[in-house]
Specification:
The complex is a heterodimer of chains A (about 400) and B (about 325). By secondary structure, chain A is an alpha/beta fold. Chain A has helices at about 20-30, 55-60, 70-85, 110-125, 130-135, 140-150, 165-175, 195-200, 235-240, 265-280, 300-310, 325, 335-345, and strands spanning about 5-15, 15, 35, 50, 100-105, 155-160, 185-190, 225-235, 245-255, 290, 320, 350, 375, 380-385, 390-400. Chain A has 2 domains: about 5-240, 3-Layer(aba) Sandwich (Peroxisomal Thiolase, Chain A, domain 1); about 250-400, Peroxisomal Thiolase, Chain A, domain 1. In chain A, about 35% of the residues lie in helices and about 20% in strands. In chain A, helix 3 (about 70-85) packs parallel to helix 6 and helix 7 packs across helix 13 (about 335-345). Chain B is globular and about 65 Å long. In chain B, strands 3-2-4-5-1-6-8-7 form an 8-stranded mixed β-sheet, with helices on both faces. Classes of the chains: A alpha/beta (about 400), B alpha+beta (about 325). Strand 6 (about 155-160) of chain A pairs antiparallel with strand 3 (about 140-145) of chain B.
Chain lengths: ~400, ~325
């Protein structure tokens, strides 16, 4: 089996585009939450989201014509382009059949589907635009990446909702470990949309101003968007081209609650953590930092913390949530978590959980890295991703040894 | 991808020959369509737990159950975390998503959506509901691949089994017939929409043999490619399956003919089409026609330049007819 390393990072996020800006934002504890601009919020009680403002795909993409693609595909392709640039890799020098993409998503081209819905409501069935209909299939997200980079290998869009980026990382890792590719883009993309904003509000899972994971008074998520891409290579390929190596993917675990569509299950999540540790060949005491799923809902954070205490005991490693800064970027979320985890290892710091004010008496012992990034030696990170449907996916990333 | 896989059970539902008249109140672009008019979620699965199921979820859950039954596997005999689900789609349920989205435009307040229907907008709904229904706690994944979804599902499943992440996988594809799908096909100038679901029980061939399960098929190789022509993809799969290259042409022609016939009979079932083709091959074997071990190809291509091909050997002796 090949060892698999991370050599490029491509975040397109509300707190920064490109690895340098994204890292600065994590260190500064910046918030990307602002008043929604992408849809008309009239009538909605809450009006904030983590939108990527001033996203200019045309300035990042070199081959893809943004006008032909939906926003989520643009996010995916732009993130991938940034990741190969960050890695110093000329995609033209890779054997096309040995390079591919696995992209995770929750809602695919949600803004395209919403535009079609608006046409249908306003003008009836025949009013739907065939051009938009052509952009509905979710496999366009990974196809966009391969077309942008000229890759001809695997093109897979994984749609396991909010843990989809971790699935993508895991699958890309397997493909490389098994020797079936040299280079893979892995990550995720999603766009802010009305229906998710409405759905989470009606579930009682949306908060008004600030997402405050692990805080006593946390009251929900804020929807977000973006594209997160990591360039994965076999260690051999990375060394042969003398690439800078950020970190190594040590392994991952997947399981399914098989109990409820929207309520997480602590025992199942704990089992997923143990599975990920076993596959990665690490023990709980090896983990220096947990990049939490940390949505900021009462239920998620309580259940995630319960699973952490069960697996790690009363004094687990520091646990923080990038969702406090980005909002919930859905299928991209665990991709951003993986980028933050990789930067944590490379740069030696713990990203903060911002908006934290009050200790939750039920979470005593859990260190959320409150509000301010902290310098730390980080060797091994656990990156959590959970989802509707009980699709749990946890990736373990470690410093190259 | 070296570990050979056995299909030890399978099932399919298709709207071939049926007529969608009366299925929906909304107008359809054509007076009829290919849909399973007799399919009723409550009648198949009961009322409990199915209240929010959309049509795709109902089809998927039913076919998963039929495939398990066909394999003769007793779920109690395998640890729940060693059985998984790998399903393919195009974009999930377009109807569920657009109906939910439309509520934000048509209700008195834009947030007055039905929260119980929210999970149906998420593309992993069918696979997750199947896991809940049958208590399957292993790897659970949904891939969006359109016409190539079956091939991506089979490749994903092959790797999961080769890596030892699971022992048994329900691998398949599901698409539903809805006015949304029918109009989308019509307005985009595609063949009329159909619907279908096909699920295949996959195990490592050696493990299936050890458990005394005789395969309905052995999967020899599955290829996908981007930006190549179909012939190159077929050549690749034939080579990796260890077949005589001279067989490629006739096998590919048979696959194309089968594809055409299923499109005529069942409509364009998008992600499900290739699943119906694989099921058609296995049905012919089960009917005892071709000799055991005869090789078939399944192929598909997308308009964006993707190709997929699978090579398999079929057998007539297996499945639910162990007696």
């Amino acid at each position: 089996m090949n060892r698999v390393v991370i050599t490029g990072l491509g975040p397109v996020s509300s707190i920064g585009v490109g690895s340098r800006d994204f890292c600065s934002a994590l260190l500064a504890g910046r918030s990307g939450i602002a008043r929604i601009e992408s849809f008309d919020t009239a009538g909605f009680p809450y009006v904030n989201a983590g939108e990527v403002r001033d996203f200019s795909p045309g300035e990042i993409l070199t081959r893809l014509d943004p006008a032909q693609w939906g926003r989520s595909s643009q996010f995916a392709a732009a993130a991938a382009r940034l990741a190969v640039r960050d890695a110093g890799l000329d995609p033209g020098r890779v054997a096309p059949g040995r390079a591919g993409a696995v992209v995770g998503t929750t809602s695919g081209e949600s803004q395209v589907i919403e535009a079609l819905t608006a046409q249908l409501v306003a003008g009836g069935w025949a009013a739907m635009s065939s051009e938009l209909l052509d952009r509905v299939p979710a496999d366009r997200l990974s196809n966009a990446v391969n077309l942008e980079l000229g890759f001809a290998g695997e093109s897979v869009t994984v749609c396991t909702a909010c843990s989809a980026s971790n699935y993508a990382l895991g699958y890309a890792y397997d493909i490389l470990a098994m020797g079936e590719a040299d280079v893979m883009i892995a990550g995720g993309a999603d766009s802010v949309c009305r229906w998710a904003h409405a759905g989470f509000y009606r579930l009682g899972a949306l908060t008004e101003h600030a997402c405050a994971p692990f805080d006593r008074d946390r009251s929900g998520i804020i929807t977000g968007e973006g594209g997160a891409a990591l360039l994965l290579e076999t260690l051999q390929h990375a060394e042969a081209r003398r690439a800078r190596i950020y970190a190594e993917v040590l392994g991952y675990g997947l399981n399914c609650d098989a109990s409820h569509m929207v309520s997480p299950d602590a025992a199942s999540i704990a089992a997923c953590m143990r599975l990920a540790h076993r596959r990665a060949g690490v023990q709980p005491e090896d983990i220096d930092y947990i990049s939490a799923h940390g949505t900021g809902t009462l239920a998620n954070d309580a259940v995630e913390a319960q699973a952490i205490f069960e697996v790690f005991g009363a004094a687990p490693p520091p646990v923080s949530s990038t969702k406090s800064m980005l909002g919930h970027t859905m299928g991209a979320a665990s991709g951003f978590g993986a980028i933050a985890s990789t930067l944590a290892i490379d740069r030696g710091f713990l990203p903060p959980t911002i908006n934290w004010t009050t200790q939750d008496p039920a979470l005593i012992g859990l260190d959320p890295v409150a509000n301010t990034a902290r310098q730390a030696r980080v060797r091994v990170v656990q990156n959590d991703g959970f989802a509707f449907g009980g699709n749990n996916a946890i990736v373990i990333i470690g410093a190259l040894t | 991808m070296t570990a050979r896989l056995a299909v030890t059970g399978w099932s399919m539902l298709s709207g071939a020959g049926d007529d969608a008249v009366g299925l929906y109140d909304q107008p359809l672009p054509q007076p009829s369509g290919h849909a399973l008019t007799g399919f009723d979620i409550r009648r198949q699965l009961g009322r409990k737990g199915t209240g929010f199921f959309d049509r795709a979820t109902g089809l998927g859950v039913v076919v998963c159950g039929q495939a398990i039954a066909d394999s003769g596997i007793s779920l109690e005999t395998i640890p729940a975390d060693r059985i998984g689900v790998v399903l393919g789609t195009t974009a999930g349920s377009l109807k569920s998503t657009m109906d939910f989205s439309a509520e934000t435009l048509t209700q008195d307040r834009p947030y007055l959506v039905n929260p119980g229907l929210f999970p149906n907008t998420v593309m992993n709904c069918v696979a997750s509901q199947a896991a809940i229904w049958y208590g399957l706690k292993g790897v659970n994944v949904t891939v969006a691949g359109g016409a190539l979804a079956l091939f991506q599902v089979l490749r994903y499943a092959t790797r999961v089994l080769a890596r030892g992440y699971a022992d048994v996988l329900l691998a398949g594809v599901v698409e539903e017939f809805t006015p949304h799908a029918a109009w989308a096909a019509h307005l985009a100038g595609r063949p009329p929409a159909g619907e279908g679901a096909a699920v295949f029980v996959l195990e490592r061939a050696d493990a299936a043999r050890a458990a005394g399960r005789r395969p309905a098929a052995e999967l020899l190789a599955v290829s996908t490619a981007f930006g190549q022509d179909m012939a190159a993809c077929v050549h690749d799969v034939v080579a990796r399956a260890g077949l005589d290259p001279a067989e490629a042409g006739p096998l590919a022609q048979a696959a194309a003919d089968r594809q055409k016939q299923i499109m005529l009979d069942a409509g364009d079932c998008q992600a499900a089409s290739a699943g119906l083709e694989l099921a058609a091959v296995l049905a012919v074997h089960r009917a005892g026609q071709p000799p055991d071990g005869a090789v078939s190809l399944i192929t598909a291509r997308t308009r964006e330049g993707g190709c997929g091909a699978a090579a398999l050997k079929g057998y007539g002796h297996a499945g639910g007819h162990h007696g």
